[in-house]
Design a protein that fits this description.
It is a single chain. With 106 residues, this protein is mainly alpha-helical. It is 55% helix and 11% strand. The protein has a domain of 64 residues. The chain is built from five helices and two strands; from the N terminus they run H-E-H-H-H-E-H. It has a two-stranded parallel sheet. The protein starts with a helix and ends in a 15-residue tail after the last helix.
């Protein structure tokens, strides 16, 4: 959560930066939706963002998804998600794509 707070502060200082949003991957694994569709659904159900607004945010890269719970996702879903993330990086308008990975060791 420290990462999310820091990114939120940075986004508040510069409105051109995407807004960080935490998404819990466990529900994506169950639903099996394409990741972009799931992000819009989660924005609507968890954060009460109207679907049209959420769709625009995802399409226009106005959010920085912080994906939590990778250890709870089926391997096939992980592969599909990585493909989606790779495609997003390929069409990004930003010169540098920021990517974060966090692990928790029990």
């Amino acid at each position: 959560m420290e990462l999310a707070r820091e990114l939120l502060l940075r986004a508040g200082e510069n409105e051109e930066r995407p807004m960080p949003v935490v998404f819990h991957l466990s529900s994506w694994s169950i639903e099996g939706l394409p990741l972009a569709v799931w992000l819009v659904e989660e924005l609507s159900s968890k954060y009460q963002v109207p679907q049209r607004v959420g769709q625009a945010w995802v399409e226009n890269e106005q959010i920085l998804p912080l994906l939590d719970g990778l250890d709870e996702v089926r391997r096939s879903s992980i592969s599909n998600g990585c493909n989606w993330i790779g495609c997003q990086a390929g069409v990004s308008n930003r010169s540098v794509m920021e990517s974060f990975s966090a692990c928790r060791w029990d």
